[in-house]
Design brief:
By secondary structure, this protein is mostly helical. It is built from twelve helices and no strands. Helix 6 packs across helix 8, helix 8 crosses helix 9 and helix 9 packs antiparallel against helix 10.
């Protein structure tokens, strides 16, 4: 774990010494702030304090934000020629990937913590379910973990950060839209159930309402494990 912590510390220092992370955070809060408080369908549209709507706004904003955070994670290492140098040190691919993953996840968690004023404002305006609030944030962290693992995998494929961004975005579209669309084409039966299960929205939607099912938790952990394993495989293959 020592090597993982070193990588996390390095990645966080690089991130917060860069202007990019502050621009990303600013854009995130501008978008979520406008949609939540000033758009025609804001949090007061239904006439009650709605945590579900709040978390839905965060959910879709993260869909676009996380690929920006991950697109340089390994692509820049390849482009700068430091990728091969890293593995001349006593570090294993899984330690390298875990360090990258948790460093970006911490950046996302900090961003979500900074949205607490949104949550506090809603609680002051009406009754809210605090358990649902905690579950909603947990759900966003789990979803972000999935996006991050997809982004790290995409970044491991290329030295071009723009390509990495669009590959991550394309993978995300499958999990957000296309699996659900395909399930709808089949209507019912095993194939429909399979594609429904693969749809990320199917597992997130109930969480902001305070419902966490074991199968949803297993789904998110499985997606993270799958894409980090794919990234590890590709890194190991390209080093050979």
């Amino acid at each position: 774990m020592g090597a993982v912590k070193v990588i996390i510390d390095k990645e966080l220092k690089v991130a917060f010494n860069s202007l990019a992370i502050y621009i990303i955070y600013t854009v995130f809060f501008c978008i979520t702030g406008f949609i939540c408080w000033f758009s025609w369908k804001n949090v007061f549209y239904t006439g009650q304090a709605s945590l579900s709507y709040l978390f839905n706004v965060f959910y879709w904003t993260l869909f676009f934000m996380v690929p920006v955070l991950t697109m340089k994670s390994i692509s820049d290492e390849r482009k700068d020629g430091t990728f091969e140098l890293l593995f001349t040190k006593p570090i294993k691919p899984w330690q390298f990937l875990c360090g990258k993953f948790f460093a970006i996840l911490l950046q996302v968690i900090l961003c979500l913590l900074l949205t607490l004023p949104y949550y506090i404002t809603l609680t002051s305006l009406g009754h809210v379910d605090y358990a649902a609030g905690i579950c909603g944030y947990l759900g966003l962290i789990l979803v972000s973990g999935c996006y991050i693992s997809m982004g790290i995998f995409a970044s491991s494929l290329t030295s071009n950060t723009i390509v990495a961004f669009f590959v991550t975005f394309a993978i995300g579209i499958w999990f957000q839209f296309l699996f659900e669309f395909i399930a709808g084409l089949f209507g019912s039966g095993f194939i429909a159930a399979l594609f429904t299960y693969l749809s990320m929205g199917e597992h997130f939607d109930a969480i902001p309402r305070g419902v966490i099912d074991t199968k949803d938790f297993v789904y998110f952990v499985s997606i993270v494990t799958l894409f980090l394993a794919l990234a590890r495989y590709y890194i190991s293959r390209t080093r050979a």
